[in-house]
Structure formats: structure tokens, C-alpha cells
Automatic annotation (TrEMBL):
Stored InterPro entries: Restrct_endonuc-II-like, tRNA_endonuc-like_dom_sf, UPF0102_YraN-like
GO molecular function: nucleic acid binding
Family: Belongs to the UPF0102 family.
Species classification: Bacteria, Pseudomonadati, Pseudomonadota, Betaproteobacteria, Burkholderiales
Name of the protein in question: UPF0102 protein EYF70_29425
Domain of life where this protein originates: Bacteria
One Pfam family it belongs to: UPF0102
Amino acid sequence: MARTDLQRKGQLGEDAALDHLLRHGLALVERNFRCKGGELDLIMRDGAHLVFVEVRRRRSRAFGGAAASITPAKQRRMKIAAQVFLLRYRQLPPCRFDVVAIDGDTLGWLKNVLDA
């Protein structure tokens, strides 16, 4: 199936985010986890923590930038997807939600942005 230009740019943003997180010592657990209730771009391990990462890319910081584009509805879908993912664990690990926001050529990593 052919990918759109927007999908290709999104994939490049996820690749950049993954590379950044790997360089900072996180380990990839799963990429593009999808379930009926939502999706998670990256699931990483940071020591004992499981980290659910939303990657957002915008051309510029106009209109609030990449991080500001994560709506309350999107946050709810991320939480649902995380809950579904965690069903595979007998004992729940400590978890957090991070955002990698890419505005133009600037990548920012925001840790622990949502209350679980």
C-alpha cells in the first residue's frame, strides 16, 4: 500500500525520535502499538520504567507547536492503549508518558507529561 507524503514525514519523525531516545539509553520495547481504543508510537524501557512515547512533528511552533497538538482526546486514547498494552504484564512496572516534539528542525523530549 502506497504511503502518503504526510505518512512518510511522520515515519521520519518517529525514526528521529527513536534514534534520540536510544542515544539517551532507552531501549525499544515496541513500535506503533495499536488497539481498538488507541495507539502508541513508541514503547521504551528506561531502567525499570516502561515509557509510552507520543511523537509529534510540526513544521514550526506556530499555533503552539507539536507538543500543544496533543489534545485531551488524544491523551485519553494514549491511556487506553497503555492500559491494553499493560494487560500482558502479571506485575505492573512503573510507567510514564513522554512526548518527543519536533518543531521544524528542533527536537524536544518532554518526560512524564501525563498523569497515568
